[in-house]
Amino acid sequence: MSTAVAICSLAPLVSSSLADFALQKVLEDATPIFGSYTRDTAEKAEWMKSYSDDTLLVHMNIPGTHDSATWNYTQATQDAMRGITDLNQVTVPVPETYRCQELPLIDMLNMGIRAFDLRYAIDPTNTTLIFYHSYALLSELATVDDVLFGFYQWLDDHPSETIFLSFQHESSTARYTANDATQQLQLYNILTSPAARHYFVQTKNELGKLGDARGKINLMRRFDLDKLPDSYTAALPGLHFSPSLWTDNGPDITLVYNTSKNLTAYIEDYYQPLTPMRSDAIENIQWKYNATVKNIEKATTEQLDSLFWTWASGTNTANNPPDWPRIIALGNGTKYTPDGGVNQQLVPFLRGQKGKRVGIVMFDFFDQPTELIDIFLSL
Question: Which CATH architecture has domain 58-244?
Answer without folding.
Answer: Alpha-Beta Barrel (3.20)
